[in-house]
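Figure 2 data, in text form.
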Amino acid sequence: MTKPPARHKGLVLATLCATMFMAMLDNVIVNNALPRIGQQLHSGVSGLQWVVEGYSLVYAALLLTGGTLGDRYGRRRIFLTGLAVFAAGSAAAALSGTTGTLIAARMFQGLGAAFLTPGSLSILRHVFTDEKERARAVGLWSGVSALGLAVGPVLGGPIVDAFGWAAVFWINVPIGVGGLLLAARVLPEFATRTKRLDLPGQALSVLGFGALVYALIEGPGRGWTDTRVLTLAALATLALPAFVVVEARGADPMLDLRFFRDRLLTGAAVTGFMISFGMFGAAFFLPLLMQDVMGWSPSDAGLAGLPMTAMIVVAAPLSGALTSRHGPRLPLVTGLALCATALGALSFYGAHAHYAQYVWVLLAMGLGMGMTFTPVSITVMQRVDPARAGMASATLNTLREIGGVIGVAVLGAVLSSRLTITLAESLHRLGAPSELGRHLPGATPDHTTALPAPVRDAVNAAFIDALHLALRCGSATLAAAALLVALLLRPQRGITPPAADERPVPRPEAAQRREEGLPLAP
């Protein structure tokens, strides 16, 4: 490995932060551009859904492959390739003249993000070798990555209003090109592994995760009994267990299952998955509440999230310091508990609530999310062999992405089922056509006329009731996850140390005891 000069470390960190901010921002900023895209490209609801989810599909399906390719061919090389692909995909998306072209460009962006994301964390792990210095670097990196997710809705509305929908993709191009030039100059390369690629594992992971994500995306729209959805769900059910079997038996697997023998790594993985499940699942439906029920504009709804953004920025470095001093248990459990509390509390506010009444919920959400990002990343870097850092990072990010997709699907199913039942009863009492129950709040089947006031009120009330149930389900799930992680990461004494081949790197006794949550002195 060629280490960068000390003066280049700041540039390395800045490069990785900027590119990860761009990749995370792209996950959410496009949402506020969808109405304009639909108008100008004459796209229906299904097409707009794929504009958003096409990115997640490719990103989730290829993250493990991206991590393995980085370990095999060099993390710097794959990182640069991913960054170039992402920037090119962004330009293609901005220039798209049809919905199909835009979806293809979004998938190309997802390919680039899948290549650059695993390498970013593993490069940090090698460049910043001092434990405290590494914790600070990862804290900043995690905070900036989380900031990309948080500010996407805030930036999206004003950008679209001022410059049009293509601008949400054009902004990635100068960031990508500048990052590519700087990264080529300052990023070090690392020794690559010489063992052969795990082609069966790669094929099964792409097939399994791709089929799972596709089925979850299409299920709510097509219906869970649709032939295509059932076929892909069955394919995922066969491919993912086969992937586990292949990886367990392989001499050089792309996913080392010993990763999950470590209770700290398992706790970090559970946290990453469940935070995405609860928070991304809920966040998918909150804009409907703010815009369709409360009547907010997209820009106003985005700006309402600024308190959450501010708390993420504050919490990320704070959680890094707590992890370095006390281990990951305190910040991870606290973050999960805060998010569970926030989702539960949000379910008590309806259409007539004032922003000042529930702004504390947004602060709690931001604090909870920010408390989890950095400890998860630090735990992975400290517990995983450097040669497997790309694989571990890809595993974590895959679980996060899949958690978000599953959260949207599961909480969406809860919301849709409750909405259908409640609204059917209300419409029957009003003598209104039952087909109105299949449309969003405030919309008629032809989307041209307003609903009669009694029907509109019934639709809004049913939607809020269904959303409250979904939020409470998300809250209960996060609370259960907090309990599970607390148990997984509880301090344990007298445990036999892992075998030498399972131990990532030798660490000072004080650092080891700190990671395990034990006192520094026996």
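Caption note: The chain has 18 helices and no strands.
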